[in-house]
Amino acid sequence: MARLIIPCRSSSLARFNLLGLLSHAPVPVRSASLPFRNSAKRLTQYRPFLTSEVTCLRKNRFLSHSVDRYKQKSRKLICSVATESVPDKAEESIMDAPKEIFLKDYTKPDYYFETVDLSFSLGEEKTIVSSKIKVLPRVKGSSAALVLDGHDLKLLSVKVQGKLLKEGDYQLDSRHLTLPSLPAEESFVLEIDTEIYPHKNTSLDGLYKSSGNFCTQCEAEGFRKITFYQDRPDIMAKYTCRVEADKTLYPVLLSNGNLTSQGDTEGGRHYALWEDPFKKPCYLFALVAGQLASRDDTFTTRSGRQVSLKIWTPAEDLPKTAHAMYSLKAAMKWDEDVFGLEYDLDLFNVVAVPDFNMGAMENKSLNIFNSKLVLASPETATDADYAAILGVIGHEYFHNWTGNRVTCRDWFQLSLKEGLTVFRDQEFSSDMGSRTVKRIADVSKLRIYQFPQDAGPMAHPVRPHSYIKMDNFYTGKFLFARNYGILL
Ligand SMILES: [Zn+2]
């Protein structure tokens, strides 16, 4: 993840100046889950904008999202499990209370996942998600329980080695599915069917539907809203993903990796089967389905492989993607020339939609962007807009190696993948433009946004000792960690 989009209350805050900076203002932010104890006492904080990270989506959107998130938090058990009795209010509040996660408590997982075969049947009212996971105990003969994360899911069935588990064979609460007794074998197959409701998902984490398109956001902990899983970055598996949906409403079906087959099914529906040959953590999983058109191009790697490049947008935005395609090809060439890193698949997809809340996300071979960070036309875009698109397209592409193929053990290491990749995108922008101007702009951002944060109640180490909600850590400190070290 590169860029948090923090919508502004005033559209006047959206303008970049020549150095790629935005005007800024402190805006009161009401947070229900601040990361630090001392901060949690205050309901209202003044959070300075990370202005280079910031793009105004539309007026007042931040406030409406905050309200949506609040409503979502207040009805978390609505979509919860159907096979358990609904907990009373006291139990509910205990289960939903944020839990502090400590770095010192890290332990290796008791079970690894080798392969994950996902199948999505996308629908207007509900989506059925089927997962088939090959599970490997870390220690042969382990009797440890397997604890899976899951939130806002309706469990339909669980099978182990093909045998359907009955109620009582597992434990279920609003955040976990626990399997206490598992086969003492070298490996076994776990199959789970769940039902989810993307059209009701206003958190914009997991799988959601917006403006008629299905879209995912799984970093940091969104995958647990798609299916029950060990939602932690040290669980790395090879994925396949079959997506099925109505052919007229969703002609484009995308996921990670290479497209291995596609075709029509009954009832006016169609499917696409995707296979990602490289292991990845679940936060890099992505799915997009909708009515999109693509700008197509190719890139020939230094070893002579031809990579198909596609930038997907709503059809009316396609003419504005020329600079993004130029930026992508420049980034691919630069990473080969400067870091010796070559793209590793036959296809690279970029999706730009207006309803993507996190700005940009480096999902393996399926980068998803907010339109603001991809679209540009000479009539309306400034030089700074063009420079920002170059930098962000480069940043997400560079994550293919720094973050994706080489990933984090846990979320305390977020600054490693972000700091290193920010360094790489800064070097890229410096080589493509003026190194001096770029450096002055980056240092200015640190002085304007990072230093005040470090002098205030939101100050925290680059690698914290604990957190309550990981989302709160996508701040300047992590994204600019490398600069910060140099300045100190
Ligand atoms: Zn990033």
Automatic annotation (TrEMBL):
One Gene Ontology cellular component: chloroplast
Gene Ontology molecular function: aminopeptidase activity; metallopeptidase activity; zinc ion binding
GO terms (BP aspect): proteolysis
Span of domain Peptidase M1 membrane alanine aminopeptidase: 325-475
Keywords carried by this UniProt record: Aminopeptidase, Hydrolase, Metal-binding, Metalloprotease, Protease, Zinc
Domain Aminopeptidase N-like N-terminal: 117-284
Cofactor: Zn(2+)
Keyword flag Repeat: no
Pfam families per UniProt: Peptidase_M1 (PF01433), Peptidase_M1_N (PF17900)
Family: Belongs to the peptidase M1 family.
Protein name according to UniProt: Uncharacterized protein
Organism in which the protein naturally occurs: Microthlaspi erraticum
Lineage: Eukaryota, Viridiplantae, Streptophyta, Embryophyta, Tracheophyta
